[in-house]
Design goal:
The chain is of the alpha/beta class. The protein has helices at about 30-45, 80-90, 95-100, 110-120, 130-140, 150-155, 170-180; strands spanning about 55, 65-70, 100-105, 125-130, 160. α2 (about 80-90) runs parallel beside α4. Bound molecules: zinc ion.
């Protein structure tokens, strides 16, 4: 019997990894949308808001709505993903929502993941994960958020999710460092 350990099985280990399976396989178009989100996050930071940006792409690949974090006015719920959910509920049919993809610089928080699922939006692609952000904040000794750092899958298990994008991690980390006055 021939034994060829170098031949990968047809069913790669990723399929058994569950939550970490989508970590790869972002297309160039998806990375382009994520880079756009990072620019929105940068714009938010320049305005004194927290560095998060998000956009909604419809089934034809067109960007239909984009926003960035706007919490500096005192309303801590002004997250871009929440704005997207409310915009979509008002402007898109249920079928259009389900066929849309939301791209975001940082993985949805539980509030936004819930809003996304309640209005029936489709896939989410994020650049940096909640776990990554939590690790950075812990490293910097920053206070924890008042909401449990649950991944999207724990809040909205029916929503297809992809991310993170390692290509963008350093840039996003730098934005969050700057947001908290951390010099690296
Ligand atoms: Zn949120």
């Amino acid at each position: 019997m021939t034994h060829t350990p170098d031949s990968p099985p047809s069913n790669p280990a990723a399929s058994a990894a569950g939550e970490t399976a989508p970590d790869t396989a972002l297309t160039q178009a998806e990375l382009g949308h994520l880079r756009h989100c990072v620019r929105l996050a940068q714009a938010a930071l320049d305005l004194g808001d927290e560095p998060f940006g998000s956009l909604l792409v419809d089934a034809d690949g067109a960007v239909r709505f984009e926003d960035h974090n706007r919490v500096s006015g005192g309303d801590a719920t002004r997250h871009p993903e929440f704005e997207i959910a409310r915009w979509a509920a008002a402007q898109l049919s249920p079928a259009e929502r389900a066929a849309s993809t939301v791209f975001t610089s940082g993985e949805h928080c539980p509030m936004c993941a819930a809003a996304h699922a309640w209005v029936g939006l489709g896939r989410i692609v994020y650049a940096a994960s909640t776990a990554q952000l939590g690790a950075w904040l812990a490293e910097w000794g920053a206070p924890a958020a008042p909401v449990a750092p649950l991944p999207i899958r724990a809040v909205a298990p029916g929503v297809p999710v992809a991310g993170p994008a390692p290509e963008l991690a350093a840039e996003i980390r730098a934005l969050h460092a700057r947001s908290r006055g951390i010099v690296e």
